[in-house]
């Protein structure tokens, strides 16, 4: 039990860090009156949007909570509510610190690059640590309540089932909020961005972030509700689902341990998350510009410190939980053939053992090391594909010289290509960890990846702050050197934003395997008499794979169309404002910013509902239709295949969209730095087109695929439990 | 034996039709001297390209033939050579009739729309019937030689194996040539198209197809070597592989029939192909404009006639081959449980039976009807997504009003969305045919789809002829009404081109399942002792699925990049020509068309090699690496999963690219028809960007995915045979 208590304490450390650091951020100067006024408008808009978004989600949430309670009982429903609430809190806090740090970053950038970086990164670190800390607290406290005060015994089948269902409910709550937040925020931010550009830059011929444009505040609000609140909810979800799934899989597969041993093994993911919060906090203090003024280098210093310190920290956590690192766990040397004789389910032994007999603490430790290496490689690959210093971005910039068409062609080629290396890294990660410790190896590798979430989110969340700071500098007509500094910070922000998305979808690749294993293990437990074939030779498996692979495409299409439609509404509203009051363009009267914010808010909320329901309803429809046509066994087979089809197709859709979009954005920035003709050249115009295309790719459709994958899997688990009850 | 003879005779009917109809085409007037001169240049360029392409492929082909002969014996190598040669012949004839019909279509369009349509469609019909006829002859004659003169007995295991290996070799030859032709032709046509546009329209400010542009002949050559020769080789391959795979699967799965019964069942796909050649020929005579001058309607009349007549024709063929339509074949009522007792492999019985006991001739007939319905639905869906009369194209046209960026965003959204309905149709097709007659149902549905290839290719091949005719009309400065007529014909051509690609990839979806079944059946036969798990619970299956899913992305990236690079070479060459001789732009001296053609030729040949090797080498590398890491059983499991991963991802990549590209092209045409501002408007400029982006999507990367899928599967079958020998 003390392992869980320690984890809770470490989670609280993250919260305390967040409180202290946000005070530091708030203490920084917030500029002149004009800056405060602009920041106030952004803040107001962001709060209004989140309020309406959470109100809408709350309605859906209450309905779903009642359904969960009816089919799965009150404890699962409680888990759902906790997951949903804390996911919302994570997004809310991220947005709140971000809308206060933006103006302070602009003010600090007046003093220097290091000062701007410090404020922006500290704000990001607050979001990062609170996401990781709240996620860890959510699972750890819930697990503690279930096994402590409620005294559920993990070795009693029915009570273990209650714990599992509760954890799955928690994950479902987090995921459902997160898909709404990611998609709603993504539609908001890109509808405002694209709409503002179209009506401002193209039609009215005024620069970006010009205060005369009624949509400019909405654009800045979007950075906060999409890239910050949406992202925070998404990573909260990823953390909860991954760590939760590892614990659930442990409970399902390991059937030969005594109660306290099983409890220790299930607590290990929590403890790993806890110690990595400490290493992440240490890492944040090392983010500092060197002599070369290399911003990416400064961020790398922080990440590498965290990763290196996490090695001994994870070793320590594993020793604490398991004691003897070389003792065999799982199969405990029992061959599958003889397992039946001693009363152990042979299927579970085989699944746990993977290829060899059993696994040890060292095997789990090495698996987690693989998780850290995978994280590092994905960051490095993403930087290669989206950084201005390498071939991909430069090839897009160069192709802009010959026009809009070639810019987009090269961008699409890069986005397709960018899927290759991450996929290979994930595949090698799967093979190595499976060789080490079977499915448990894969699960713990995913957990170790997520343990670094605090640091990774910190790197990401600093991006929208600098983006906003640039907007405020422009609107408040600060000195041009300030905008140059915020632009330099923002260019790196494009890469770190892409990094988080690659990291989230990469970890989803591993987590989905874990969730699928939970699905099959559940199936055996709930329907022992049913002979379900997941073999590729079963055509219903192919049917499931095809339908699953379709979901990210359809979802992506809906997201892209929604942005186009909502952006059109923005254009119409701005046109109407210009027509009604000619003083706006003359600069004598102030546009009604709030009206545009309100309009984008309504449009984003309306557009997010239908696509978000797709991954919730698809598993249910597929199961019932295939069961009707070909019997229940094939219904479950098709449903299981659907889960893997979503991840196999989703990983490519998400990776290509997020890396491609980041590359397009930075190709534009590279040209604006004076290459290929610089600002205002034909190449620049072409690069602006590419950037616009990349916007809904990287900030709406692409990142929302990650929670979509998880929801599909979790709904399947809940469906199983509901059918069995 | 007479069934095969009848099939051969019907294949010869197609060839005779081709000869007669090409004479009719050649008899049509070929315009004035200027037109003949231009057409001559195009013809010369196309022949030069194909000569060099086939020379290069021949070198690769000889090397591969030697390897096949070494590992699999002389008969398989002979099959490979026959498949490769006839695939080349199909492409060569298609190109040859097309380069002669273009100028005659332009001349005929001077008299009227119907006259232009007649010449162009007849040329398409020649290509269509020769593709279907030669493909049918290739398999039927080869099968006849093996089982007749060479007297191989299908009930003797070793001799049946020789027949199977020979048919697989034939399919491999067809596929290997086809991927080179599709990709090389695709790179040529789009490099020339994009390059000519960039340097002509954008830099020099001269219109499309202006004779002063040195790349304009290369552009027109591209239509013939890509859309015509490449497409013909591709559909030849699809036909041979699908029909061949159905025969191979029959031989592998049906183990309880007498020699002559098995022979009849194996001949049925040939006979179905034969009778549908007759119905396709009849259909070509009904392509005629009605009072409404609706071109798509005229083409539909032809297709629907063919489809309707094919219903009784296929019924007749099935009765001829099987006699009693209600007799049970396959399982013959033997339950899988008791199959062992009577000496039948229970796995094969179960696989054949699907869900019920055995299948009848009527079941096969109904499965083939499903194949026809799937074909019809895919055509209808493709028309919806690419025709100028429906929401998708119009939404892209409308979004062009707000700029390049929104045009591309909407186009990408449509391309993602366009995968949904075809996937659902294919999924329903799989379920229904599997319910009817197990795997054999799926195989015969695919065969029936391909039986209509003659008609479908005819609809497609008419497109590049009208495209060329428009170019010739422009260059020869014919009256503007001529260009209007060829443009109207060409707009429909964009849809029919997309139709063929959707049809090819849709049938590939079914054929890949058949090939995968052949792979698993082969595996059992070659390595009976090996316990290979294709279950999704095996992580090496996931690894295979992920790596397979990666291939279309990487392949697409390579294709798109190749077009960009080669188009850049074109730009440089044209710039050099303009700089060296100022008389070119003045119109006083003629540019060196041949030099540009030669340059694109070399670039396309160079660029096609590496991506084409990807699907050949990937299965071999994956098998050996996974075998090394996790043993042979997992090596085979990962390889099998790779095969399905390629199709599951490839079907979406190919569908989205081909439909999206067609929609972009026609959105431009819709605007040129006077909507949203018409030619020269800002919306038109944005639509031109979308069209350029769609070019490599729909004509290079997208269509080449189809042969790529097949090659991966066939290489796996050959690898199995080589490992076993």
Question: How would you explain this protein's 3D organization?
Answer:
Two copies of one chain form a homodimer. With 725 residues, chain A is mainly alpha-helical. Chain A has one domain (1-724). Helix content of chain A is 84%, strand content 1%. Chain A contains 21 helices and two strands. In chain A, strands 1-2 form a two-stranded antiparallel sheet. In chain A, 68% of the residues are buried. The interface between A and B is large, with 85 and 85 residues. Chains A, B: Proton pump that utilizes the energy of pyrophosphate hydrolysis as the driving force for proton movement across the membrane. Generates a proton motive force. Chains A, B: Its EC number is 7.1.3.1.
């Amino acid at each position: 039990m003390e392992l869980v208590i320690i984890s809770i304490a470490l989670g609280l450390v993250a919260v305390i860090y967040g409180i202290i650091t946000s005070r530091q951020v708030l203490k920084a100067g917030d500029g002149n009156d004009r800056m405060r006024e602009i920041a106030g408008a952004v803040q107001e808009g962001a709060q209004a949007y989140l309020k309406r978004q959470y109100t809408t989600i709350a309605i859906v949430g209450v309905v779903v909570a009642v359904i969960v309670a009816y089919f799965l009982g009150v404890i699962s429903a409680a888990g759902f509510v906790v997951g949903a609430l804390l996911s919302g809190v994570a997004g809310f806090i991220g947005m709140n610190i971000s809308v206060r740090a933006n103006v302070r970053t602009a003010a600090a950038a007046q003093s220097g690059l290091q000062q701007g970086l410090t404020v922006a990164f500290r704000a990001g670190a607050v979001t990062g640590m609170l996401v990781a800390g709240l996620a860890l607290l959510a699972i750890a406290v819930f697990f503690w309540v279930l096994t402590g005060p409620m005294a559920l015994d993990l070795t009693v089948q029915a009570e273990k089932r209650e714990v599992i269902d509760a954890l799955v409910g928690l994950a479902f709550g987090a995921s459902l909020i997160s898909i709404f937040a990611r998609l709603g925020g993504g539609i908001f931010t890109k509808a405002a961005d694209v709409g503002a550009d179209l009506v401002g830059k193209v039609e009215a011929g005024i620069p970006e972030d010009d205060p005369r444009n009624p949509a400019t505040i909405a654009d800045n609000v979007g950075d906060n509700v999409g890239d910050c609140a949406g992202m925070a909810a998404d990573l909260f979800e990823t953390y909860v689902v991954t760590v939760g799934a590892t614990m659930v899989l442990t409970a399902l597969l390991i059937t030969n341990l005594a109660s306290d041993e099983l409890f220790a093994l299930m607590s290990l993911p929590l403890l790993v998350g806890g110690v990595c919060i400490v290493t992440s906090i240490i890492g944040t203090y090392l983010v500092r510009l060197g002599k070369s003024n290399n911003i990416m280098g400064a961020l790398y210093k922080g990440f590498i410190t965290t990763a290196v310190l996490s090695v001994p920290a994870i070793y320590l956590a594993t020793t604490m939980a398991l004691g003897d690192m070389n003792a065999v766990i799982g199969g405990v040397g029992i061959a599958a053939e003889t397992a039946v004789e001693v009363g152990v389910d042979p299927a579970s032994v085989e699944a746990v053992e993977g290829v060899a007999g059993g696994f040890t603490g060292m095997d789990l430790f090495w698996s987690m090391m693989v998780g850290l290496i995978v994280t590092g490689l994905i960051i490095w690959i993403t930087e290669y594909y989206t950084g201005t210093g390498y071939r991909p971005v430069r090839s897009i910039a160069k192709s802009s010289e010959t026009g809009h068409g070639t810019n987009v062609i090269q961008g699409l080629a890069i986005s397709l290509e960018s899927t290759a290396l991450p996929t290979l890294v994930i595949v090698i990660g799967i093979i190595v960890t499976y060789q080490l410790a079977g499915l448990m190896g894969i699960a713990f590798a995913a957990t170790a990846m997520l343990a670094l979430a605090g640091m990774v989110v910190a790197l990401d969340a600093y991006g929208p702050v600098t983006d906003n700071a640039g907007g405020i500098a422009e609107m408040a007509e600060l000195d041009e050197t300030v905008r140059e500094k915020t632009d330099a910070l923002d260019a790196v922000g494009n890469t770190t934003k892409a990094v988080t998305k690659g990291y989230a979808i990469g970890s989803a690749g591993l987590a989905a395997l874990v969730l699928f294993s939970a699905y099959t293990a559940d199936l055996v437990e709930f329907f022992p008499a049913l002979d379900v074939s997941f073999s590729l030779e079963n055509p219903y498996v192919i049917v499931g794979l095809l339908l699953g692979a379709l979901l990210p495409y359809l979802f992506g299409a809906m997201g892209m169309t929604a942005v186009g439609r909502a952006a059109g509404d923005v254009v119409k509203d701005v046109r109407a404002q210009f027509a009604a009051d000619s003083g706006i363009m003359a600069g004598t009267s102030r546009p009604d910013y709030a009206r545009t914010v309100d309009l984008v808010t309504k449009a984003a909320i309306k557009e997010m509902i239908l696509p978000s329901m797709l991954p919730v309803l698809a598993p249910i429809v597929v199961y019932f239709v295939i069961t009707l046509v070909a019997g229940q066994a094939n219904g479950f087979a098709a449903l299981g295949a659907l889960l893997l089809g979503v991840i196999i197709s989703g990983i490519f859709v998400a990776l290509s969209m997020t890396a491609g979009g980041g590359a397009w954005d930075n190709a534009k920035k590279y040209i604006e730095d004076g290459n290929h003709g610089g600002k205002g050249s034909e190449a620049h115009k072409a690069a602006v087109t590419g950037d616009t295309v990349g916007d809904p790719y990287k900030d709406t459709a692409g990142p929302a695929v990650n929670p979509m994958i998880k929801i599909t899997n979790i709904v399947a688990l809940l469906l199983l439990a509901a059918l069995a009850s």
